[in-house]
Hints:
- The protein has four domains: about 5-130, Rossmann fold, CATH 3.40.50.2300; about 145-310, Rossmann fold (3-Layer(aba) Sandwich); about 315-385, Helicase, Ruva Protein, domain 3 (Orthogonal Bundle); about 395-450, Arc Repressor Mutant, subunit A (Orthogonal Bundle), CATH 1.10.10.
- Helix 14 (about 345-355) crosses helix 16.
- It is elongated and about 100 Å long.
- It starts with a strand and ends with a helix.
- Helix content is about 50%, strand content about 10%.
- By secondary structure, the chain is an alpha/beta fold.
- Strands 2-1-3-4-5 form a five-stranded parallel β-sheet, sandwiched between helices. It has a five-stranded parallel β-sheet with strand order 7-8-11-6-12. It has a two-stranded antiparallel ribbon with strand order 9-10.
- The chain has helices at about 10-25, 35-45, 60-70, 85-95, 105-135, 145-160, 175-185, 205-215, 230-235, 250-260, 285-290, 300-305, 320-335, 345-355, 360-375, 385-395, 410-425, 430-435, 440-450, and strands at about 5-10, 30, 50-55, 75-80, 100, 165-170, 195-200, 240, 265, 275, 280-285, 305-310, 340-345, 380.
Amino acid sequence: MKATVLIVEDEEDVRWALKETLSKKGYQVRTAATGEEGLDLARKEVLDLVLLDVRLPGMNGIEVLRHLKEEDPDLPVIMITAHEEAQPAIQAMKMGAFDYFIKTVDLDVLLLAIEKALETNRLKREVARLKAEQQSEAKMELFGVSKAMEEIRELIRIVAATPRTSVLIQGESGTGKELVANAIHAMSLRADRPLVKINCAAIPENLLESELFGYERGAFTDAKKAKKGLFELADGGTLFLDEISSMRLSLQPKLLRVLETGTFRRIGGTADVQVDVRIVAASNTDLGQRVREGEFREDLYYRLKVMEINIPPLRERREDIIPLAKLFLERLNKEFGKNIRGLSERTEKLLLGYHWPGNVRELRNVMERATILCQGALIEPEHLPLELRTSASLDVATSPESGDEDESLAAMERRHILRVLEKSQGNKSLAARRLNISRSTLREKLRQYGLQ
């Protein structure tokens, strides 16, 4: 989508010539004959650049520039004048004008300045976005040695080569859906354009539409100035819609229209806005089931899943657990200035035996905790959370050969503790180690089951 440029110029012939030139170059052009009219347009519309005459009837260009910069410091403004006066030029540049030209300037030179201003502003936004990403929680690349992850990486390479195809990523929370979206964008021809992300479940239902599509001035009570939505901010790039299943039914047709036509209207708007955006959506619930339940539109579902990527939970790709844990440990060693060499054999068994309801995210958190607590050369079981240390004993206690299949979980656990105590000849410290639990946990279990 070409940029929108406002021309504030009192001379009609100059205003017309500039508008014709810019329109032929594909820019959307708005015009104003006075400073007051220009400011009113700037407050009503979303502008990308302003061409501003210095000498205007009523409010002069320098005063208009001051108001524009107060309301939007990042808006590029190029000053134009019929007079070769140094003082206004110096004053305008100090106030944040991007450039300053005499009206007799060659139009090609002015066009180059406009393109440079727009590109500079785009780069500033991109740098700000990258800085914000670096300040957020560190993200690792998509990693795994399992066949399932190899297939996903290959699918990402194929999908990335088709820059317009919409993608639906499905998987439990913590499996790495956002990492897949990052990889698709980074490997595509859109990599140098914005990757804009939004969690649909994190935004109140009544605000999600304005976040996605923007709004015009006066569209609702607090809309004192027009605002671009995320679709416009992602123009040329990728929009990642996380937890798409939570989007309300009434908003889904508007998303479907963008997918089908590449156009939408801002809230309160009357003109269509054209965008070029690839949509990558993600869901931690079965979106097909949501369709069958009547909670998600079937036409939108099939439009989103032109390409579908399903990420298996960590418990279904156990060969990835230890390599991931070691990768996290390597990075956490650097972060915390530690030199932990690895995982003990008992720790590896516990990690492999756990069911990981929180998937890779939970594994990363467990490794961070263990790295902080570990003061030796290896991560030991005592550095792991209680649920991991008790899961192994429960697995043994609930195994088929341990007793009658109708026996309660508590009864099986009680019998298993008794057997381990007997094997340990009543030594509670040894029994606790064999059960992979702390002495205090064993003490509580003994009290609970009346074994003290």
